[in-house]
């Protein structure tokens, strides 16, 4: 289905709003029933837990619960933003989040397009299968492999030394400057194949006639990618980008937690680790909640801004 | 179609019921949590119900690393038959103790027994633990664990006792052969090669390792040696950070030095000795003696490294490495190559007397075995703790089954054959046959029969026979019979000892606690940095600059207050 058609359908819907009648409701009762369950699910698992946000404004003690803890207003937020560690943690989260977003986004699209250009059906399937398998490994295994491979006596150092790129092994985990690239690399290795699937699906949905027409007009491979494939998957790209922008602050927890050590802690700790360390470990649930609220607010703001930009440029958008 | 609709209805219904049920139990729990005090008195009524031959199962979580045993473990079954109860033990994996405990508290559900480690104050704060005062009075074996003075030290600010320390309980005459604590360790092959020299200072220690490494860069099978490694993962970084207190000849107060004369707290992070110690490490790092992976390795990687016998020396606590590593070395017969570790009495200079080893029991007042509010039958739980302290069960726990795991000689002494010792160090055998309930209260010292030690490693004859000849030779060369003799022993430092039991229980609710966490963070980052630094002087100055910003004074003054409190408290009993 082309973009044009889609737009037309949309306009039509806008023009004639469907009348809500009892008959219509009756006709859709199964659908309504199912949506109802989803709504309940949403309320219970996404909205009820929000009452826990009260904790951020209290000197929360598990013994007293949220009803009897002392109310302290914004004191915990103040404490949070006067804490140099927290500011550093925000920087790390944003840094790694943006790197992950950009890198994983680009690699997935490029990978999907490259895969699509493969003519050998079996080769394509094989590559695709192998590439998305790492997605199913848990982080503890991936970090274990990384730790082994990148250690002083690991395979990476061995190769680098053998081929005379370096004189002595580098202990990659002892240098803060390597930490973000390692995290980005791990994310790419684990998720590229998986992320590419959705783009591949979008590419398959492009009308083959367009490629034929382009070929007849003398478009080579590059031109076809540039003028047919990319515009064809643009809506998908934008929707995914919007959704991922909201996830920037979810830069990760396991990978940084498992790969980090004392030497690189100034660049490795993310907001989630901060919450665990100060909230759960030290029993200061209030400050943990405050950090969590901050994270949610920033995420919402980011997603709204991104959506507004998309709206402004008349692109696909979330809302 | 009809069928599908029905199915979906059913699914929807079960989902909502499950949800409601989930919410329901939550509210119940908060209700029981608030009424802890009344619960402790009412449960006594239904205590008699257990004696109908059925075996009660309890759950336990210990916030320390450990190994789970098999469900059909032989000795666990025997103990269950004798006491009418068994405990399914789970251990810490991949988290810190505080994280694990914090998660339990957030969830509000606990196992029956819990050892919270440094998360114990949070458990008490959250009202998760049952006050044990009345129960302790009821069970003589438990009561006998500590003196009235010691029980008193365990009372929290609200006057109740919430946990029972498992260690530091000596019964009858003390029998110690192993040095269970921290030391500079070295492989016997290094000492043998050098002709068993006297090694008394840090400089001599590293000089010895350097010259051995130069002469023997590999093991017998060609594996390269690692001259010196440092474990610094998370809380285990004591292997790096607290040596300055020992080097100055003080005992293991853990987080500070206590001046025994003036009873003043001293910060060991900034002493001249600390600077010298890290400078030495820095020099050795540059020479390639310190393992470059030291600061990034995990505990598992460290233990794996030690188990290959490649590491010549390190600082560590015996309990932190020996149980795993010694068994592994024994199973691979690496002890014959001299890969076993012995402690050395090292200080900063020869005129400082070492205090790596102290005699006497050390009472840990910061954590221990506790019973939680989730336990339905506190009486039965405490009865079990009481029962497994009885001498016959205690022997089962630590010696095993008579004639299977040990033999009794004509004089009534317990002894093991080489095969039995092999079994006792074999992981698979331990999982299927042995059950020490190692984080339940227990004794060292002498058995009630007056002959045997409560544990095999305290039995002088058994201990010495179990040593590999290579190790015996090493001991003989230093005129030692035990690990303790290698260091010499000291009197118990004083009634404040050890201060770490207080700093362990600090959290960010006080300025001193916050400072303590910050200090930890700074040291985790900076100590490796200064060891690896090209310019040591500059790095040390930078470190001191950052350290100053941690408000360490707040921490030290809280330690001083606690020291004064402890001294005043003990004065009441003298």
Keywords:
heterodimer; A: 319 residues; mainly alpha; MetI-like fold; two-stranded antiparallel sheet; 16 helices; flat; B: 574 residues; alpha/beta; D-Maltodextrin-Binding Protein, domain 2; 2 domains; 5-stranded mixed beta sheet; 26 helices; 46% helix; Bact_solute-bd_prot1 (chain B)
Give a quick precis of the structure.
Chain B: Residues 32-51 have a biased composition (Low complexity). Chain A has 319 residues and is mainly alpha-helical.
Fold and architecture overview:
The complex is a heterodimer of chains A (319) and B (574). Chain A has 319 residues and is an all-alpha fold. Chain A has a single domain, classed as MetI-like (MetI-like fold), CATH 1.10.3720. In chain A, 71% of the residues lie in helices and 1% in strands. Chain A is built from 16 helices and two strands. Chain A has a two-stranded antiparallel ribbon. Chain A starts with a helix and ends in a 7-residue tail after the last helix. In chain A, 26% of the residues are buried. The model of chain A has no long low-confidence stretch (mean pLDDT 88). Chain B has two domains: 51-172 and 358-418 and 434-444, D-Maltodextrin-Binding Protein, domain 2; 182-356 and 493-571, Periplasmic binding protein-like II (D-Maltodextrin-Binding Protein, domain 2). In chain B, 46% of the residues lie in helices and 10% in strands. Chain B contains 26 helices and 15 strands. The radius of gyration of chain B is 26 Å and the shape is globular. Chain B: This is Putative aldouronate transport system substrate-binding protein.
Topology summary:
The complex is a heterodimer of chains A (319) and B (574).
Chain A (H helix, E strand, L loop, with lengths): L2 H13 L6 H6 L1 H19 L10 E2 L5 H4 L1 E2 L3 H7 L2 H34 L3 H12 L6 H12 L4 H8 L13 H29 L3 H9 L4 H25 L8 H6 L5 H4 L2 H11 L3 H28 L7
Helix pairs in contact in A: 5-16, 6-10, 6-12, 7-10, 10-12, 12-16, 15-16
Chain B lengths: L1 H33 L1 H7 L13 E7 L11 H10 L1 E7 L5 H11 L5 E3 L4 H6 L7 H6 L1 H4 L4 H6 L9 E2 L5 E2 L10 E6 H6 L8 H14 L10 E3 L9 H4 L1 H5 L9 E3 L4 E3 L5 H15 L12 H9 L3 E7 H14 L9 E4 L24 E3 L6 H10 L3 H8 L8 E2 L5 E2 L2 H7 L2 H7 L10 E2 L14 H7 L2 H9 L5 H5 L12 H4 L7 H22 L3 H13 L3 H20 L3
Parallel strand pairs in B: 1-2, 1-3, 5-15, 7-10
Antiparallel strand pairs in B: 3-12, 4-12, 6-10, 6-11, 8-9, 13-14
